[in-house]
Design a protein that fits this description.
302 residues, Rossmann fold, 9 helices, 12 strands
């Protein structure tokens, strides 16, 4: 089977949650024989006066760049001693976080971005969007969100909801590839509202047939509900699932800042890794050329 995960980018800001994401990346890189990019971003401060926008703190940025480079090289050395990953690569960008990530995705043909998340949002994050949510919605490839308290790095039970039709065949191929690498079992969940029942049930039956043809071990069930995110989270807990693989489709994207859309619900209420399949042919519109931020170093994804 084609290796669907050949290059992994993991965001590193040296906090515990990002280092846990690095550990996940190392385990996955070992299983998939994938190159791992240790990515750190440095964001400029600027002020705007009568002469225009002026970057400030250049000396501090250079100092932080050197510190980050040394810390990443030390991290790389320790990872090479422990994990048989084909290649580690360090990349430091001086850019906005999402634009910097997408530049590397494009130049290095990245298949997957991994970042750590707290799985919780305070009021400011609800309004502005947490960094993990920004990465999820802004990155131009698939994203794996790893909760800070995650301590299992293999995926023996893989929950695969069939809730929308977008990129469903690609998601099943990915799920089977991950199951094969982990000697895992797929737990297939057909989940639908009454309005979409016919088309989702038809797709669900088709996926069952496909898994049988691929000789992939699986169990399956079907659930009728309007509260998909909550039910998926609950079933992942009931089944002791190790990962949930989802299409990049936010069914509740119309909801306001003060309400939880599907993505925010699933992030906030699930304590296992969430893999959002996003084909690289789908480009986000969240890139910005303005290299301005509120932090000198890449903030903690969460």
């Amino acid at each position: 089977m084609q290796n669907l995960i050949s290059t992994i980018l993991v965001g590193v800001d040296f906090t515990e949650k990002s280092l846990n994401a690095v550990k996940m990346a190392a385990h996955m890189g070992t299983r998939h024989k994938a190159k791992i990019i240790l990515f750190h971003n440095i964001t400029n401060h600027s002020v705007i006066d009568r002469t225009g926008k002026q970057v400030i703190g250049a000396e501090t940025i250079n100092e932080n760049y050197n510190k980050a480079d040394q810390a990443l090289k030390k991290l790389e050395t320790s990872l090479k001693e422990e994990y048989p990953v084909p290649e580690f690569k360090i990349i430091i960008k001086n850019d906005t976080l999402i634009h910097g990530i997408n530049t590397v995705i494009d130049s290095e043909s990245v298949d997957l971005v991994i970042c750590g998340t707290s799985g919780k949002q305070n009021f400011a994050q609800l309004i502005l969007g947490s960094l993990s949510y920004q990465i999820l919605t802004g990155a131009d490839c698939s994203v794996l969100l790893v909760p800070e308290n995650c301590s299992k790095y293999s995926f023996e039970k893989i929950l695969v909801p069939v809730r929308v039709l977008e990129d469903l065949a690609d998601k099943i191929d990915l799920s089977v590839a991950i199951a094969k690498k982990n000697k895992g079992v797929i737990s297939l969940l057909g989940i639908s509202t009454e309005e979409d029942l016919f088309k989702i049930k038809e797709a669900y039956q088709s996926v069952r047939t496909s898994l049988s043809i691929k000789a992939q071990e699986y169990d399956s069930r079907f659930l009728l509900t309007r509260d998909k995110a909550t039910q998926i989270s609950k079933l992942s807990q009931d089944d002791n699932a190790d990962i949930i693989i989802l299409n990049y489709k936010d069914e509740d994207g119309w909801k306001s800042f003060f309400l939880e859309n599907f993505f925010k619900q699933i992030i906030n209420h699930t304590d296992i890794p969430l893999f959002f399949l996003k084909n690289r042919r789908t480009k986000s519109n969240n890139n910005s050329d303005d290299n301005v931020g509120f932090d000198i170093t890449m903030p903690c994804p969460g």
